[in-house]
Amino acid sequence: MTTIARATDTLTRDALAVLQPGFTGTTAPDWLLRRLGEGLASVALFGRNVRTPEQVAALTARLRAEHEDVLVAIDEEGGDVTRLEVRTGSSFPGNLALGAVDDVGLTRAVAAELGRRLAECGVNFNWAPSADVNSNPDNPVIGVRSFGSGTDLVARHTAAYVTGLQSFGVAACTKHFPGHGDTAVDSHHAVPRIDVDAAVLAERDLVPFRAAIAAGSRAVMSAHILVPALDPDRPATLSRRVLTDLLRGELGYDGLIVTDGIEMKAIAGTYGIERGTVLAIAAGADAICVGGGLSDEDTVRRLSDALVEAVRAGELSEERLADAADRVRALARWTATNRPDAGARDTADGDVGLRAARRALRVTAAGEYTPVTEAPYVAALAPVANIAVGDETPWGIAAELTRLLPGTETGSFTGPDAGNEVLAAAGKRRIVAVVRDEHRHPWMGTALDTVLAARPDTIVVEMGVPRAEPRGSLHLATHGAARVCGRAAAEAVAGV
Questions:
Q1: Quick one: pLDDT at residue 248?
Q2: Alpha-carbon gap, residue 89 to 332, rounded angstroms
């Protein structure tokens, strides 16, 4: 496809303004800087763009030298989904841990400290929090990213998170509307379907979004899910009934609507990214998240040209595209006028994440527990990471136990014979078996059965959603796999 409009055209500038593209590397490429000058209003950061906070700050400063009010977006939920600490694990527990503590003041403080760190790096738009009610325990993509399975619990913590994050001028983006919690399919791979009636949705899934709107969430992210009770034909991201009639109309939301990643298979595999982009804007979305898997200039050109072409063909109204672009620019202005002053930036609470992780730890002992004093063997029974979490971020407790008990050894195991492999690798060392969502992985339960039958003194650490019955001489439920969750568990194992 050739470019059909000059970069200076208002129509083309509006088309560029609604895109939130990513890029590769830790410095801004020339094409990205040029597009910022041509009308691009947002840039998305992912783990591939992050090395250190100082490097990110220099990167965002360079972007603003080209476009002062640019929105710099990131997917920094804390917990299992982290980009700022993609190579070390997060300093903050995720939503499930905060929901387990159920202290809205703590949730607000965690989100505020996260917002402070993002603001220091020049990031002003965070695709968080997840407001999904995790009503399906077999959900493959939400899980610990949710505050829990209770509607009211999720609602009050979503509101607290929004308030805390935005107190440092970082726009919150509450996701995944109208609720991704009751799904058994990951929308990164296919289109999930939620078959419940509208009354259930209103009483369960929509309540946290109402709370987020009341708390002033500056953005809402749509989900690539099909909800026949709302629209039997199109997924929420492409549905006018969902985005305009429900979110704008019934819920009275007037902020920015951004899509989940348009390159996810739920959209790209069915509609293609160009057609999906046009349909999303026509349905009421204002911004298109793209760049998790696509991160090149050609993608930006293809999508902006598709929007311009759709307007000129009468498939998308010029007024709808202009309205979407204006909403993006309005959010950028909000972030520019709500930047924290120097005094606010100095109010750091660097330990709040660890304090929260310690409070979230659930300890179940089979009897009187004696702390481990000799270096153990840590066996990680590792499932495949979902795409939202990624496989770059380390998890578990081995690194933290090694710090407390030098000489700790570790290995990763999977599959039907994992239990016997663990026993062979551990030898005579005390075994610490680390699992993640045991209830979702039958092989994991079988492996634990094998290990515990031979070694009943094994310690079990559950770092996913704790659905299975506690077992082992000590069972620790961390409610997430963030680095600080691992540290809290390691402290309990070693008795410090």
A1: 98
A2: 29
Task: State the virtual CA torsion across 45, 47, 48, 49 in degrees, nearest 10.
Answer: 40
CB 220 within 8 A of CB 257: yes
pLDDT in tens, 382-402: 876 655 555 678 889 999 999
- Sorting pLDDT into bands at 50, 70 and 90, what band is 342? low
Residue 359, pLDDT > 80, answer yes
Catalytic site includes residue 260: yes
From 260, 286, 305, 437, active-site residue: 260
> Which is nearest to 113 in space by CA: 359, 401, 368, 346?
346
C-alpha to C-alpha distance for 367 and 460, rounded to whole angstroms: 14
Q: Which two tokens stand for residue 239?
A: 């549905």
188 in catalytic set: yes
How far apart are the C-alpha atoms of 4 and 408, rounded to whole Å? 62
Could you tell me which residues come within 8 angstroms of residue 159 by beta carbon, excluding any fewer than 6 positions away? Answer: 104, 211, 212, 214, 215
d(C-alpha 396, C-alpha 15), whole Å? 43
Which neighbouring-strand residues pair with 222? 177, 259
CB 236 within 8 A of CB 258: no
445 CB-near residues (< 8 Å, 6+ apart): 438, 439, 468
* Choice among 67, 176, 188, 475 that is catalytic: 188
* pLDDT tens digits, 271-322: 999 999 999 999 999 999 997 788 999 999 999 999 999 999 999 999 999 9
CA distances from 185 to 138, 266, 369 (A): 9, 10, 40
CB 33 within 8 A of CB 66: yes
